[in-house]
């Protein structure tokens, strides 16, 4: 370890401050840009001005449309994800408790969803809705909320995708809703619908309001206003308490009333080609003229939505006057600034690229490929390099004692959640070398350690090949488990496959030992499935991610029973009836009798697994098919 610390180095080097370097460089850049702007301001032209206005129309309106689409697509994506989870399952009120955790998780993680309802083929409805306080409530039958009662399912088939239905008004609010079919064995088994409040869509869109001179709106069903950023101003001017949704005539907005008759502006050809209509709306009551920018949104129901905003024409005129004198200068200064910025940033980013390259190896836990970062004359960079090198040293040391497979699982699942101690049903495997004490009597301490290391390397490889986790090494024994920290329904089958793999690896190693004239090893293995406490166990700064419970003791007793069941075999694998039943069919095994094990009040039915059976029960399921914790 001292050698590694010396290799990475910690000597402090005086250098140039990055703050001073960056400040000087960008100060010079801004000065050059401002001089260019002041010197070339008189050379602007009208074409560049209207090009900028076209871009502004397109960017502003597309941002509004994208905000609405993103909001609705979140709901569509959520129901499609749930469809993948619920397809090929029974759907009905009897399954509500089983489906409820997934529904709650979907609504909790998707704030855009207000109601999530499942309708089975008999018309029964149940699901989750978000209350006014934000609390989530499950419902079924008499507890169905008003939005679910008023909603009419769209016409969907078993092959339909996410289908948006017509807008529904309930409890004083307007909802957009999307439905996907739930399919079981190719037949329609129900419908999953998510409802999204248009009020929330309006709140999201209002964030793009351009200020006092701009008004943002969304229209549906032709003349129905479902979002309007200046509703408070309308109430203040008219004294009327207007609630959305409302028709254009009820709202009393003369600009929206003139959308249908407003003249398309020819100078906005680029915007029009991209689906944005820019119209000149003249006032008929001596008020100011306005420019509107709108875009049609289709695919979110049987009717077309229109999103847009409008400004006073004088606002655009002022913009034209400003841009007329500065557009060309701005473009030229931007080009110069970009060139200088690229050169500077390429220079500055080079050290970051080196750090990123090494960080990729760290993310893959390939610490041996991480070379030490060199010293830098830039003080802040040198400090980062030293900290990075020290971090690598620490991670290498930690990786020596923490199994790499466990570390990856904990990082993938989230350390805070995965390491909290909780009860889970898993499958445990306990191994022990037969007569290792006698074998080690003729070995030196170094030879004993080398023999154990070689033996455990074979066992660990078999465990990790089947997605298991090595918990600890106890003398010449090993404890491993499946089903935690990442829950999986096939933990028993995977554990049995791993044990057969251990047996095959041991037999091959024994053949190699025989050729070298070395004594062979014999192995006892116990397998048991049951509930244990999994997670961090310890105190203060001494914690261990491990398993605790009676199932662990029973697994060790099964391993010990191997000396009575088959004392002379090269490998004996004994499994509890719980494991055999949990693993399902396809396991080559035979009864080994009923035994009373030490520490157990009742008898335990034991099975012996045929470790020479090939092939053994199918492959591991794909990661996407691994279920949630039971």
From TrEMBL:
UniProt-listed InterPro entries: A/G_cyclase, Adenylyl/Guanylyl_Cyclase_3/4, HAMP_dom, Nucleotide_cyclase
Listed GO MF terms: adenylate cyclase activity
Gene3D superfamilies: 6.10.340.10, Nucleotide cyclase (3.30.70.1230)
Pfam families xref list: Guanylate_cyc
Keywords: Membrane, Transmembrane, Transmembrane helix
PROSITE patterns in alphabetical order: GUANYLATE_CYCLASE_2, HAMP
Guanylate cyclase domain span: 427-559
PANTHER family linked to this entry: ADENYLATE CYCLASE, TERMINAL-DIFFERENTIATION SPECIFIC, ADENYLATE CYCLASE, TERMINAL-DIFFERENTIATION SPECIFIC-RELATED
Protein name stated in the entry: Adenylate/guanylate cyclase domain-containing protein
Entry's Gene Ontology cellular component terms: membrane
SMART domains assigned to the protein according to its UniProt record, in alphabetical order: CYCc, HAMP
Membrane-traversing stretches: 323-345
Domain HAMP: 346-400
GO BP, sorted A to Z: cyclic nucleotide biosynthetic process; intracellular signal transduction
Record's keyword annotation contains Oxidoreductase: no
């Amino acid at each position: 370890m001292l050698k590694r610390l010396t290799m990475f180095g910690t000597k402090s080097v005086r250098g140039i401050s990055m703050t001073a370097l960056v400040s000087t460089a960008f100060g010079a850049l801004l000065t050059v840009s401002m001089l260019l702007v002041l010197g070339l301001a008189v050379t602007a032209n009208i074409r560049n001005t209207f090009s900028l206005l076209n871009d502004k129309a397109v960017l502003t309106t597309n941002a509004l449309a994208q905000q609405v689409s993103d909001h609705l697509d979140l709901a569509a994506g959520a129901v499609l994800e749930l469809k993948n989870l619920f397809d090929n399952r029974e759907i009905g009120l009897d399954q509500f408790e089983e489906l409820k955790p997934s529904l709650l998780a979907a609504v909790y993680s998707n704030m855009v969803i207000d109601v999530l309802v499942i309708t089975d083929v008999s018309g029964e409805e149940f699901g989750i809705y978000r209350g006014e306080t934000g609390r989530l409530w499950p419902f079924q039958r008499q507890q169905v909320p008003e939005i679910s009662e008023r909603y009419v399912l769209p016409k969907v088939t078993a092959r339909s995708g996410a289908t948006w239905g017509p807008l529904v008004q309930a409890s004083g609010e307007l909802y957009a809703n999307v439905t996907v079919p739930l399919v079981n064995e190719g037949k329609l088994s129900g419908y999953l619908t998510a409802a999204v409040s248009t009020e929330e869509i309006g709140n999201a869109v209002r964030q793009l309001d351009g200020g006092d001179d701009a008004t943002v709106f969304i229209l549906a069903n032709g003349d129905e206003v479902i979002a309007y950023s200046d509703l408070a101003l309308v109430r203040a001017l008219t004294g009327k308490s207007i609630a959305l949704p409302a028709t254009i005539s009820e709202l009393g907005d003369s600009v929206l009333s003139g959308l249908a008759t407003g003249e398309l502006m020819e100078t906005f050809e680029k915007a029009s080609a991209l689906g944005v209509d820019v119209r000149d709306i003249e006032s008929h009551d001596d008020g100011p003229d306005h420019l509107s920018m709108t875009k049609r949104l289709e695919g979110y129901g049987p009717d077309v939505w229109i999103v847009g905003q409008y400004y006073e024409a004088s606002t655009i005129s002022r913009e034209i006057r400003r841009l007329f004198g500065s557009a060309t200068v701005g473009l030229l200064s931007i080009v110069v600034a970009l060139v200088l910025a690229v050169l500077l940033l390429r220079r500055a980013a080079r050290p970051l690229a080196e750090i990123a390259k090494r960080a990729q190896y760290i993310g893959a836990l390939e610490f041996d490929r991480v070379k030490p970062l060199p010293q830098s004359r830039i003080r802040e960079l040198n400090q980062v390099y030293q900290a990075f090198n020290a971090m690598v040293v620490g991670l290498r040391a930690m990786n020596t004692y923490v199994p790499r497979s466990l570390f990856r699982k904990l990082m993938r699942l989230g350390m805070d959640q995965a390491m909290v101690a909780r009860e889970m049903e898993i499958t445990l495997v306990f191994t022990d070398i037969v007569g290792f004490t006698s074998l080690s009597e003729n070995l030196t301490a170094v030879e004993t350690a080398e023999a154990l290391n070689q033996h455990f390397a074979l066992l660990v490889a078999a465990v990790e090949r089947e997605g298991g986790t090595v918990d600890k090494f106890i003398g010449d024994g090993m404890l491993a488990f499946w089903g935690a920290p990442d829950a999986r329904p096939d933990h028993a089958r995977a554990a049995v496959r791993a044990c057969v793999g251990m047996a095959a690896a041991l037999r091959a190693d024994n053949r190699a030992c025989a050729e070298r004239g070395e004594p062979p090893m014999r192995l006892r293995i116990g397998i048991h499935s049951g509930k244990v406490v999994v997670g961090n166990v310890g105190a203060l700064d001494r914690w261990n991610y491990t398993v605790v419970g009676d199932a662990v003791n029973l697994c060790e007793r099964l391993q010990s029973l191997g000396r009575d069941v088959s004392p002379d075999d090269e490998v004996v694998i004994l499994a509890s009836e719980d494991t055999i039943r949990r693993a399902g069919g396809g396991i080559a095994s035979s009864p080994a009798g009923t035994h009373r094990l030490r520490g157990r009040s009742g008898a335990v039915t034991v099975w012996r697994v045929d470790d020479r059976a090939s092939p053994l029960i199918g492959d591991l399921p794909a990661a996407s098919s691994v279920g949630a914790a039971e």
